[in-house]
Design a protein that fits this description.
472 residues; alpha/beta
């Protein structure tokens, strides 16, 4: 079986967009789109007028045109909204979302994968976070409708996903157990998606994509290989130097003088035990440098997953001005990444690139009024009356405490949802005309990952430049 040597990471919200994934796939490797918040990405692109017509092109191929028409009519703005005008918001997802929200999530994932796969024979994957559970089923189904080749998932223990892929490929309904804080051991809560209902009575038979679990330990590899609901097709073994969310250190967390989690020998994955599962694996986290592919193969891996190097190439979704500023600072050797144990509402350490105009700057962070209007990282919790509520440590502190959250848990939290959306130039307009500030993430070796691909006399590089250099 053919396996890619290089997997392009599924980064942020729209950083790994369809343009980037398509470029990597055309170059013969695995391009991956981010599956996070694609409903917001789609609807805000529509409100900007879909100037190049790409979304309309994808919607014209969606097999349920009445759904595509409803979304188009609700969000498309001819010529785009006026400068300074706020985006129309998407309703927040819940355990039992209404039909129109399921339609939107399904359609948004279809569009991103369709565009990434259009016009070439390469393979395309989509990356999801296990921690974002409520939109998972409709999102996976939408990606499968578009013929996605790989599903990648980390930030949790995604044991249920392989079986869900099997069910959707056969046109069967699937359920996903949800984490609900405060629920008793014998209480279970599920969200369900039925392709037959979505498709109006007859669900199509779909290709079952390969499933790659993103892991950080041999223990998790063994658990997933032996106890998942279906076949796990491989692992991406991600070290603590990778961008985005990192697995917390094993045992009691200790912080360095800089306030970063301290990782030790117990956090180094046992590659022999992972290899003993008999499944292919790729290494990630500081493997985007020249020569690292050969090193990974020598360690038993099929190849590598690379994020940061692709994040700042020409095709990525990062706002062009922000991208240019980061590249300029990388060339000057003036960039720093802080592994923040508090930033993410998930509780996982999160790599934050230190950029003055972002929420990494304490002045920017403290001047931002807390708001939770996207809600992907909200935690479901059991209220005293037995109903389900939703809270986020990054929402207004008084609201979080009123919902039963501990005030200490809200300290230092950043709105990852809004920050990542703002990073790709789709930040919401706030009261008073301010724009949501961005939140950038990158791996620890960002300076090396950028400088090595910049040719003399240039200040940009392409996805193909990265692929060619890493393969060479």
């Amino acid at each position: 079986m053919f396996y890619p040597k290089i997997i392009q990471g599924g980064m942020g919200v729209g950083v790994s967009n369809w343009v980037l994934a398509r470029a990597v796939s055309i170059a013969g490797q695995l391009g991956v789109v981010s599956g996070t918040a694609l409903d917001v990405v789609l609807t805000r692109r529509l409100q900007l007028g879909d100037p190049e017509g790409h979304i309309r092109r994808a919607l014209d191929h969606f097999p349920f045109p009445e759904i595509a028409r409803r979304v188009w009519d609700q969000y498309f703005v001819e010529g785009g909204i006026a400068p300074g005008q706020a985006f129309k918001q998407v309703p927040l997802i819940t355990i039992n979302p209404p039909a129109h929200l399921l339609e939107l999530h399904t359609l948004a994932n279809y569009v991103e994968v369709f565009l990434a796969k259009a016009g070439h024979a390469g393979e395309v994957g989509i990356n999801f976070l296990e921690k974002i559970q409520m939109p998972t089923l409709s999102s996976i189904f939408g990606a499968m409708l578009a013929g996605v080749d790989y599903i990648l998932m980390g930030a949790g223990i995604p044991r249920a996903i392989p079986g869900i892929l099997d069910q959707f490929s056969r046109g069967e309904a699937a359920s996903l157990r949800l984490d609900v804080e405060g629920a008793a051991a014998d209480q279970e809560f599920h969200t369900t998606f039925d392709p037959k209902i979505f498709c109006g009575g007859q669900a199509p038979q779909l290709k079952r994509p390969k499933f790659l679990a993103i892991i950080s330990s041999a223990t998790l590899a063994m658990t997933l290989a032996r106890k998942s609901t279906g076949k796990v097709d491989g692992f991406i073994v991600e070290g603590a130097t990778a961008g985005g969310h990192n697995a917390p250190p094993r045992g009691v967390m200790h912080l360095s003088e800089a306030g970063e989690p301290v990782y030790g020998e117990r956090d180094v994955p046992d590659l022999k035990k992972i290899a003993d599962q008999g499944l292919p694996f790729w290494l990630a986290g500081s493997f985007g440098a020249l020569g690292k592919l050969a090193e990974a193969v020598a360690l038993g891996a099929v190849g590598i997953q690379v994020g940061t190097a692709f994040a700042f190439c020409e095709e990525s979704g990062i706002d062009p001005i922000t991208k240019a500023n980061v590249i300029e600072r990388a060339l000057a050797g003036n960039l720093r990444v802080h592994t923040d144990p508090l930033a993410s509402p998930t509780g996982f350490p999160f790599k934050v690139l230190q950029v003055d105009e972002s929420v990494s700057n304490p002045v920017v962070y403290n001047s931002r009024v807390r708001i939770c209007d996207l809600g992907y990282l909200r935690h479901a919790y059991l209220k005293q009356d037995g109903s389900i509520g939703y809270r986020c440590p990054a929402e207004p502190v008084a609201n979080y405490v009123r919902k039963g959250g501990a005030e200490a848990d809200a300290a230092g939290r950043k709105c990852v949802c809004n920050g990542l959306v703002a990073t790709i130039g789709l930040g919401q307009i706030l009261s008073g005309g301010a724009v949501e500030p961005p939140l950038l993430t990158a791996g620890d070796d960002i300076v090396c990952n950028i400088r090595q691909f910049i040719k003399p006399g240039t200040t940009t590089y392409t996805a193909k430049d990265v692929v060619d250099a890493l393969l060479a």
